[in-house]
Amino acid sequence: MKMSHLASFLMMIVGGAVQEVSSAVRRKLRSAPRSE
């Protein structure tokens, strides 16, 4: 059962992605609606 490294790596990636998306969404909501 070697899921420590994989889980950690996935958690790190998912966490970073979620944080980035959340920040982008917040910025978009706060700023004027911008279409990309």
Give start-end ranges of low-pLDDT stretches.
none
Query: Helicity level, as a percent range?
Result: over 70%
Strand content: under 5%
Distance between the amino and carboxyl termini: 43 Å
Structure, described:
By secondary structure, this protein is an all-alpha fold. Helix content is 75%, strand content 0%. The protein has one helix and no strands. The longest helix has 27 residues. The protein starts with a helix and ends in a 6-residue tail after the last helix. The model has no long low-confidence stretch (mean pLDDT 86).
Helix-strand layout with pairing:
Blueprint: H1 4-30
Summarize the structure.
By secondary structure, the protein is an all-alpha fold.
Give short descriptive properties of this protein:
36 residues; mainly alpha; 1 helix; 75% helix; rod-shaped
